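REQUEST FORM: STRUCTURE PREDICTION
Request ID: SP-0412
Submitted by: Lab K.M.
Chain count: 1
Length (residues): 307
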Amino acid sequence: MFHVKRGFGFSISGVCVINPLAMFASLLLPGLGFVILSTQHFSNQADKAVFVHFMGHVISISNQKGGVGKTTTAVNLSASIAAGEKDCLLIDCDPQGNATTGLGVDPTTLKQGLYDILIGDMPSEAAITETLLPRLHLIGATRNLIGAEVEMVSMERKEFRLRNAIAALRQRYDYIFLDCPPSLGFLTVNALTAAESVLVPLQCEYYALEGLSQLLTTVKAAKRGLNPALRLTDIVLTMYDSRNNLSRQVEDEVRAHFKERVFKTVIPRNVRLSEAPSFGKPIILYDIGSKGAQSYLALARELIGRE
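STATUS: Completed
RESULT:
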């Protein structure tokens, strides 16, 4: 068994020998995203060169309950991972466009976005927008995205349009994050169909626990009917206040039930986190010394360590 790791990994059965020239080329041109292996199997098959592609992780950030820190997590986690020299793409699937404005892009002036990919069949590369962080790109939510779900009703295989659109981008980015709307419409279904895993921001309050059970039912339905590869849920606790007994009780209950699926890092209530979107900046560019920034940097390290 041979294992290669570049932020994520894969395994190949058989006896594998790395082609030195390919290894050298991959070091010089890391954007290619693959190495060439010469494999020799125990059967009588001839030696052959195999191109092994590094595929980026696609993570849906979802919660059917609003106001739980979902977009805050999408913006700041993707920015923190990009700051760690990983190529990231954030796709704003929410017609409200908060992730778009949170990265300093005005949805009203954005010429191309997710709508054009889903409805207009535009190549996904054409809708990519640069951000203040060199390794973080955005496919934003334009005003037209509000009507996308209505227009998708009559389309064939409408649940798979986002997955098909971003397939080629998985070789370009280490991580692709999908910021979902707080509802179960075609945009959320598309995100769950396109993702390999679901990250759930969970507010440390009682009603958030009720919403979590509904979300788990939705994720299981998507896994069963649309995306068998979908991995059930990683949970990050948000808006945590250590002075509040309820926050501690919710944390204890969630960790007891979901165990290792809950990130060790918790995101605290933090004024600077709330201020950053009004300046169109992720927290690490607004106030990197704040508790909010340090928490999202720690969450980024933990997420990368899990892969």
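NOTES: The radius of gyration is 20 Å.
Reviewed by: T.R.
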